[in-house]
Amino acid sequence: MTMSEPVASEDRYTVLDAPPRRWRDVLMRWEVILVILLALTIIVNTIASPYFLDVFNLADATFNFSEKAIIALAMALLILVREIDLSVAAIVALAAMGVGYAAEAGFGPVSLFATGIGIGLLCGVFNGMLVSYFSLPSIVVTIGTMSLFRGLTQVILGDQAKTKYPPEFLDLGQSYFIKMKETGISWLFIPPVPLSFLIFLALAVLFGLILHRTAVGRQLFAMGSNPVAARFSGIPVAKLRFILFVVSGLLSGLAAVLLVARLGSVRSNIGVGWELDIVTMVILGGVSIAGGVGSILGVVLAVLVLGLLTFGMSLNNIPGQVVSVYIGALLIAVIAIPRIVERIRLRGTR
Amino acid sequence: MKALFNTRELVLALILIVGIAAISLYQPAFLSWGNVGDMLTETSVLFMMALAQMVVILTRGIDLSVAANLALSGMMAALVSQYYPETPLVLMILTGVLCGLVLGLINGALIAFLGIPPIVMTLGTLAVFRGMIIIIAGGDQVNASEMSAAFQVFPKRVFLGLTSPVWIAIAVSILFWIFLNFTRAGRGLYAVGGNPVAARYCGIDQRKQELLAYSISGAVAGLCGYLWVSRYGVAYSEIASGYELTVIAACVIGGVSIGGGIGTVPGTLLGALFLGIVMTALPVMQISPFWQMAISGAVILAAVVINARAERRPDKLILPEARRLRRV
């Protein structure tokens, strides 16, 4: 028997060079759109209120979104690989309750952080086991664990509130971690930075490096684009998925500790509705719900856009739920407009 | 396949019967006509909302905006009753239904014709609808004293031993059953969710089916908005907050596959009934109502695990992902 010639044509196996970069491609990038949105937000708010561009006001504004933003980093990776974790806010509640009880038992700040993060980690392991090893759809599993975790918090905590915390713990959550320092030159100074925002920035750099500069990051993109092909390429899909849920739980636990330190009180309804805010941050950040597309830079920009937009509107006395109308509409518009543009362009070429 | 679905519903029904028997042994008053009637009235909104959500999930979608839609439509109906108390009751109810239908059409149009992922679209409209309530009502709430008498009396009216919301739920359930089993459009929903490519080759227009599904979901939410507001006698921006997840939970317990194409009317009704019983049985059993959420969470997880096992086929398992994909 003779070896037959390969039938496939040669160009099928030729990998073309990446097309040259064009200006339009750069301008149509999601991050660029977000930078423009961010600039618009800052300009409009500066015109609308003289109190907006104040270092201390801006630093205080970060308090309100940093905890959610920390969880959004983990959520971004989950959505990137076609999963979702709707139980994050319930994990926050359960971990916060644990911190409350631990503080009552006389734990110090370090052990309080360990308690919150530990509880979050366990919740994440539970989610990850159900999703990865039973291969169940994560949206259903995490709706279930959301009820379960929040329900346990309600059962244990009932209608009481935990309000006793060591002062040095509350100090971490309520004061600036880096104090304002003048250098003598009016525009050159070290801004005040709260601990939660600092942690968010550090984690964002870490997540950005992992996702965009390591092999694991490329594997996550591969999983999001095509899980089956990723599995056949030897990527440990189930293991990575499990780890992502654990990370999501862990960061939710961390966010819970920071939130408790800031509020100084825990009730069973702590963080209700956060999961939807966090998913909004991630989607506005350009992470595709269909998987395989997204960047950490986009998520960070979306966090800043949403945070500053909310802060600016509250400076102008716009009630919270009206703010949510703008944010909901922004989310839909930002997703819809590129699709409409694309449709019109396609119609032109046909 | 048909037999498989039937047994799954049978199992759920058996669990329910055993549960009810256990509760009534402990507390015989649970099975009294008055209590059963109360429980059905309390659950009637969940029955209808779960059926509507099932229709959306059948097409591989999800509608997270239903509770916000319910609140906004309920507010519209309440405002009509407040400012035009002379309006016939039918028109007030119709206001709620129409408002819900329009909101559902907005969801459906953008999802079907622009291809926006359903979870993103309805997450956005969830926030928009809730905020709209504040805007149209000027931040106020409509209290019972401001609603017209006819508006409030209707859901409390008893006919043949059952209240009117229960009768409406029965009628809606029958309509859904006929629609999903005996009409071309209803079967099309299963086809689109079960295998979109095959459905396309059969000449079924996926976009029309999606538009239909979200419109149905919206209209039912509107109807339930009226029932909710008139029954509890208050309309404000936070009513039914977080209810969308309860509705989805009822579907999941009832065996609706989140991957689309699988789900039946009786199953979904049983799922909703299950949650309804959990919610009403706890006070009867003298268990703290704080347990309610934890129990429904555990039940949802159990239901998903059991349903996944039922769907598992006996073929050799080389690649779990492949099976996952087939389902999701």
In short:
The complex is a heterodimer of chains A (350) and B (328). Chain A is 70% helix and 3% strand.
Could you give the distance between the termini of chain B?
Answer: 18 Å
The CATH architecture of chain A comes to Orthogonal Bundle
Percent strand of chain A: under 5%
Number of domains of chain B: 1
Biggest sheet strand line-up of chain B:
1-4
Question: Helicity level of chain B, as a percent range?
Answer: over 70%
Number of contiguous helices of chain A: 14
Rg over alpha carbons of chain B = 20 Å
Strand order of the largest sheet of chain A: 1-4
CATH architecture of chain B: Orthogonal Bundle
Main β-sheet of chain B, in a few words? Answer: 2 strands, antiparallel
Segments of chain B where pLDDT lies below 50 for 5+ residues? Answer: 313-318
**Would you give the CATH topology of chain B?**
ABC transporter involved in vitamin B12 uptake, BtuC
Order of helices and strands of chain A: HHHHHHHEEEEHHHHHHH
CATH topology of chain A: ABC transporter involved in vitamin B12 uptake, BtuC
Shape of chain A: globular
Descriptive report:
- The complex is a heterodimer of chains A (350) and B (328).
- Helix content of chain A is 70%, strand content 3%.
- Chain A is an all-alpha fold.
- In chain A, helix 5 packs antiparallel against helix 11 and helix 7 crosses helix 11.
- The longest helix of chain A has 30 residues.
- Chain A is globular.
- Chain B has one domain: Orthogonal Bundle (ABC transporter involved in vitamin B12 uptake, BtuC), CATH 1.10.3470.
- The longest helix of chain B is centred in the last third of the chain and has 27 residues.
- Chain B is globular and about 55 Å long.
- At the A-B interface, helix 6, helix 10, helix 12 and helix 14 of A face helix 5, helix 11, helix 13 and helix 14 of B.
